[in-house]
Amino acid sequence: MPREISAGGVVVRRSNQAWEVAVIEPAGNQDAAVTDKKRPKPVLALPKGLVDPGEKAEQTALREVHEETGVTGKILSKLLDIKYVYVRSWGDKARVFKIASFYLLRYESGEIDDITPEMRIEVKRAFWAPLDEIERKLTYSGERDVVRKAREYLQTHSEEAS
Length: 162
Prior knowledge:
It is built from 4 helices and 6 strands; from the N terminus they run βββαβββααα. It is of the alpha+beta class and 162 residues long.
């Protein structure tokens, strides 16, 4: 079974005394969950991508966050590794074992959704969402666990993240 290693980030910022997180809606939501026959529910996810050869997971997380959201951040902590198997929807349709490492990042700069035209193939939009609300709106359960870990970290380290 092929293996893939990815990394991504939970970028947080303070806004009006509440935490916000950078979230993406991937382009081409062909696997969107259908809420009714007329309106598919959009896929909402955290920015992440494959670790390039010679790259460390932390570097990948920073790169992917910037490429997919337009913002930059500083890594505060590693949050969680998610392990799962998925079936490729393209090419050989192989089952793939994937490990995705997620990091908590404090927002530093950039404009959300200011991404290159080439990135629009992957990302339909990026936006800030309330941290307290996004957990139940994220499509993937593993990423909901990551956001839960981020909230726990922020409850005990809020000065460090601000």
